[in-house]
Amino acid sequence: MASIFTKIVVGEIPSYKIAEDERFFAFLDINPLAKGHALVIPKKEVDYLFDIDDDTLASMTLFAKRVAMAIEKTVPCKRIGVAVLGLEVPHAHIHLIPLNSEADINFANPRVKLTPDEFTSLAKEIANKF
Ligand code: AMP
User: Fold this and answer.
1) What is the pLDDT of residues 49-64, one digit of tens each?
2) From atom 13 of ligand 1, which residue's Cα is the shortest distance away?
3) Which of 8, 14, 16, 86 makes the best surface tag, with the fewest CB within 10 Å?
4) 93 assigned to active site
């Protein structure tokens, strides 16, 4: 069965898209730790990040870098934190999270609530800077 993220890639379920190319897709995390929290995924479904072949993983990192820089230009923060968990969704993804302190990247934190309109305009703003 296709992962929820594959369904996002093919447009079967909606997402707040930031950017995509032939191999990768970036969108806002629906349950963000901070405003601007985004996920970068390979379009080809692979569960574990470190099962991705070297060339694709290197390119994914560079794609994530561009997304991080666009988030940084949009959301005031000290820097963008990077995390890989994959404990919930078995489709490799890199979390990009705006940070002002170490505590901001604690996944046990309460999540930020945004309205659909806020998600939409935030994704558009970041996309414009990608
Ligand atoms: P993990 O697999 O532990 O890295 O966690 C999966 C992440 O995906 C969580 O931060 C969720 O909020 C996020 N997530 C799950 N479903 C969606 C979705 N449909 N759209 C955006 N983000 C999602």
Assistant:
1) 999 999 999 999 999 9
2) 29
3) 14
4) yes
| Residue 104 binned pLDDT confidence (cut-offs 50, 70, 90) | very high
Is the pLDDT reported for residue 1 higher than 90?
A: no
Matching CATH number, 4-129, of 3.65.10.10, 1.10.260.40, 3.30.428.10, 2.30.30.100:
3.30.428.10
Q: Is the CB of 15 under 6 A from ligand 1?
A: yes
Give me the chain's average pLDDT, please. Answer: 98
Nearest CA to ligand 1 atom 18: 30
